[in-house]
Specification:
alpha+beta, single chain, 122 residues
């Protein structure tokens, strides 16, 4: 038997239907507009370093990602703007679950597992 080879194990995660995607997108856009933007980005405050200019979400494969877009006015920066995802939502057996891509608590956000309860994940 060969060791260390690559093996295809199938598609990762469950693929949501078009109807489920539209429901998830609408719910996430509402949370972004009603909670995240007013609390963490009430207005754009330019600084000497990178500063956030937008919070939005978009689909990446089977997952919905929450993204912060940053701007840098430093002339030495590689790109004037870049995006950094801070959370992703993944469907698991018909329920929606969050999978943090970074330490979300350090950024001031709470991560919830919607399939079980509304208690923050530890």
């Amino acid at each position: 038997m060969a060791r260390g080879g690559w093996v295809y194990v199938g598609r990762a995660g469950n693929k949501p239907s078009a109807g489920e995607k539209s429901v998830i997108t609408a719910a996430c856009e509402k949370v972004i507009a009603d909670v995240l933007k007013p609390r963490f980005l009430p207005k754009i405050r330019p600084t000497k370093f990178n500063y956030p200019i937008a919070i939005y979400g978009k689909w990446h494969g089977n997952r919905y990602r929450l993204i912060t877009r940053y701007r840098s006015d430093d002339p030495r920066s590689y790109e004037p703007e870049f995006e950094a995802p801070f959370a992703r939502l993944e469907t698991l057996a018909g329920t929606l679950s969050t999978c943090p891509t970074t330490d979300i608590r350090a950024n001031g956000f709470a991560c919830f597992n919607a399939s079980r309860s509304r208690k923050p994940l530890s």
